[in-house]
Every structure is written in structure tokens, then in C-alpha cells.
Design a protein that fits this description.
mainly alpha, Aspartate Aminotransferase, domain 1, 3-stranded antiparallel sheet, 6 helices
Length: 179
């Protein structure tokens, strides 16, 4: 039988360690693990993995549609979609764009019921758990700039064309473009 700590401080630390040493999402106080997969989840994953290639292809179709819609709305000057390098094949686990005025855009879309996400708002070299390495703000300007400009748009294999149009229309409205 597993014992649950009766000390709140110890329970909080153990919980943090199992999710990469993070107490607040994407902010890491110490190095931790990714140990969230239990036996039931593993059994489900074993079945779901059979569909991985099909789902990846469906994500690629969704990504292509985003690129077309962003281009049709004249948004490629304001929103930079992900790039696929020659000889490589992106699976679009996330559809992350670089967007001018990212935070304002995210709030605008949220107000219209469109959920977006900012992954990794603080670059690794500025995370508390890596402070001992001695890096400071300005040491990695590209990662710092990206942490302030990237936004993940809704992305999943079943995303419908009309749902994507709603997302891109919201982006166009925000930037004052065509709907």
C-alpha cells in the first residue's frame, strides 16, 4: 500500500516533482520527472498507438488548411505559421504560430470562446531550476523573443473546417483584416 504524506509541504513537493518540478504550469522550481503514466493509461495508449499514423495525417490536413486560411485572409504578415523543413515531416502535435501582440490576440480570441495556449512562457535558461548555470536574460535572445510571441491555435485531428474558419476569422478581426 502506498502511504500519502500527511505533511502538506512534502505532498506539494512530491506533486511538483512528478510534473517536471513545476508547481505552476511551465515554471520550474527544481528538476523533476514526467511520471504521470499509470498502468491504465499505458493500456489505453497501447490501443491508441495503432491509430497514430492516421491521426498524424489528419493533423497535417488541418495544418494545411490553417496555412491556406491564413494566406487567404492576408494574415501571413502578422502571423507566422510553423515551417516544415525539406526532407522532414511535421506531425503538428501543436499548431504554434508567431503572432504580433500575442497576449492581446490571445485575450481577444478567448473573449470569443476560442481557446489558445501559450506553451513555455519562460525560456529554459531563465527557469529557476537552471539558475545555477548562470544564464541571464539576453543570453538567448531568439528563445526569449519566441517565448513572448508564440501562440498555439486549436489543433486536433477532428478539428472541422468551419471551426478553423472561426479561429482564423477571429485572428483577422483582431488585426483589422477581412473576415
Amino acid at each position: 500500500m502506498v502511504s500519502v504524506p500527511d505533511r502538506d509541504d512534502l505532498a506539494a513537493r512530491l506533486k511538483s516533482l512528478r510534473v517536471h518540478g513545476s508547481g505552476m504550469t511551465y515554471y520550474h522550481e527544481e528538476l523533476g520527472l514526467n511520471s504521470r503514466l499509470d498502468a491504465i493509461q499505458a493500456a489505453i495508449l497501447r490501443v491508441r498507438l495503432r491509430h497514430l499514423e492516421e491521426w498524424n495525417e489528419e493533423r497535417r490536413i488541418v495544418a494545411e488548411r490553417y496555412m491556406l486560411l491564413l494566406g487567404e485572409k492576408g494574415l501571413l504578415e502578422k502571423v507566422t505559421p510553423p515551417a516544415e523543413q525539406p526532407g522532414n515531416r511535421h506531425v503538428y502535435h501543436q499548431y504554434v504560430v508567431c503572432a504580433e501582440n500575442r497576449d492581446e490576440l490571445q485575450n481577444y480570441l478567448d473573449g470569443r470562446g476560442i481557446v489558445t495556449r501559450v506553451y513555455y512562457p519562460l525560456p529554459l535558461h531563465l527557469q529557476h531550476c537552471f539558475a545555477s548555470l548562470g544564464y541571464r536574460e539576453g543570453d538567448f535572445p531568439v528563445s526569449e523573443k519566441l517565448s513572448k510571441n508564440v501562440l498555439a491555435l486549436p489543433m486536433f485531428p477532428e478539428l472541422l473546417p468551419e471551426e478553423q474558419e472561426r479561429v482564423v476569422d477571429g485572428i483577422a478581426e483582431f488585426y483589422g483584416g477581412q473576415k
